[in-house]
Here is the input.
Amino acid sequence: MRMTLQFLGATREVTGSCHLLSVDHEHLLLDCGLIQGGKEDELRNHDPFTFDPESISAVVLSHAHIDHSGRLPLLVKSGFDGPIYTHKATAELCAIMLKDAAMLQSRDTDRANKKRAKHDLEPLEPLFTVEDAEQVMRQFIPLEYGQVTRVIPHVDICLSDAGHILGSALVEIWLGEDKAQKKIVFSGDLGRAGMPILRNPTLVDTADLVLMESTYGNRFHRSWTDTLAELKAIFTKAVTESHGNILLPAFSVGRAQELLYLFHLYAKEWDLSHWKVCLDSPMAIEATRVYVNNYQLMDEDFKHFTRQSPGQHPLLSNVEFIQTTEESIALNDVHKGLIIIAGSGMCNGGRIRSHLEHNLWRPECDIIICGYQARGTPGRALVDGAEELTIHGNNIKVAAKLHTVGGLSAHADQAELLHWYHHFDNQPPLILVHGEPEAQQGLVDVINQDPKTKPKDIAIAAHGDKLDLTALPRLMWITS
Here is the structure.
């Protein structure tokens, strides 16, 4: 039986997750995500798939974030008509996120075509449409955690909670039969132990190969205690000294809900009575309702709080939902007293762009960066010390106070990645994906310095690399 694994996305970068698993003549995709970042990065989404979409038998989706799910509509548009296996909460979130991504594709294409028309250039087509996204949802097969499912001949999977966002899953995969069977564990995006709302990432005992994300492979997050103290200090100083607005660019799924929960828990301690908290993102509002309806997937503290205070739901009690464009525009006339949570998390789209345009140049305002910022994004430029940003064609001076609060990250840091990996018996071979080169090399160096926990083999996947799985536990690469 021929079994191979090829790495086609999130290789030495953090977006575009996509891995092709082949068993004889059957082909299975692990994730199919959009490439995010600068315009040059995103143009790669228009490149043809390096495989025939009609040849794919099934897809297994780790979670709903667009860098893992966002090319599914294009895959379907290109001929894939098979099942997409994922956790049921991920399916609910994808119904929101993929439709939103399609609308953004159409909007951006319309804008580009208006410019092209002025130069007598042929109009472009959007990468995919709302109709394509709707077709994708008809192909979803929702699963529960712990449910072993045969997805293609000779391949079974089981999803376990990855603790990253609602419905996020690490995937255990069994290939082949009897003594020739091999087991791969794909981490998806790993969350962190002890974070609010979500349960801790599941620890797995056995594998013949581990595929692990490495976003923060060379970094350590602040402790949760220090992070809460940091946020309290920002809000306190903003009240006593700054007297402006506070902007929080946030991912609509995961980070936005985490912030709402914190604002509920610490409303008195952080003296949030001075502020009007606004969630200015229709997608985040819809996602919050999905979180509310799936409270059984949350950690015990959240479930206990929900049961004890049915009239004060911790995601709904201390926030004003900003639904319409007109309501969002009206916030620009308010010069102080607003905490605005708005997408997108990397400042490269969404309503946060308008709020930055109206607040970034004001020294009395604060900007809190609380998530990963990919290379080429405006958020990364801010973190790297940019003195101005171009927003809607205008150069905006950066005068607001910038705070990078890494302790809110939903990704495991170096210590947490090592803890998760070291739980495996006998340190199986390890391949790193979903990380920038410096982060990945930093993680490799730390692992190799500890002979007691050194894996049988370790590699950083490059785009197009193909592995012969029948040779495991030895990493045997197939050259074309």
Summary: The chain has 14 helices and 23 strands. The chain has a mean pLDDT of 93. The CA atoms of residues 100 and 450 lie 45 Å apart.
